[in-house]
Amino acid sequence: MSKKVAVILSGCGVYDGAEIHESVIALLRLSQRGAQVQCFAPDIPQHHVINHLTGAESGESRNVLVESARIARGQIHDVRELKAADFDALVIPGGFGAAKNLCDFAFKGASCAVQPDVLAAARDFAAAHKPVGLICIAPAMAARIYGAGVHCTIGHDPDTAAKLTDMGAEHIDCAVDDIVEDPQRKLVTTPAYMLAKSLAEAASGINKLIDRVLELA
Fold this sequence. Notes:
This protein is α/β, with parallel strands linked by helices. It contains 8 helices and 9 strands. Strands 3-2-1-4-5-9-8 form a 7-stranded mixed sheet, with helices on both faces. A two-stranded parallel sheet has the order 6-7. Helix 7 (about 160-165) links the parallel strand 6 (about 150) and strand 7. The chain is globular and about 45 Å long. The relative contact order is 0.17. Keywords: Lyase. This is Glyoxalase.
């Protein structure tokens, strides 16, 4: 029987939303493995909008759910509708949207908070002891979801790792093509574009993460 997997997106574009490469690689691998996938996103304004050509703020206002629908080809729901009982696993790609829209780690570091609807959904999976995959910077939310002692990785950037440690996480250095698993919590993390220099490098770890999440499910 195919596994049902929820994917939470954070917009569309590396600098202000979900990292498109990471999102598509994850969705592709889930499809290749025969999983049934439903995308979700919070129905909230983006923190800001970045012109991805110039890197400057555009001054526009955009909605995270509406922007995420670009990646999901319109097949997406408000994260408030996400219930762990309906799925076997959860995956959250990275991109600055994970640290700006799903939480405020990009601005507040170790004192960050996770967006309430996203936190409720993720904690639902944690409480149900169902596997979760966090990609790239998304593991910044791990300690808020699981509490102190959770094992995770963002690669090996010392400043970012120190902030996760300050939040109570046990950070483990990890290569771009590898994963870190917390067996007790069924949490799987991988650095992806925290380290990746190419699409192929990003895929090497993400594919391994998806495979392991499905095995745990």
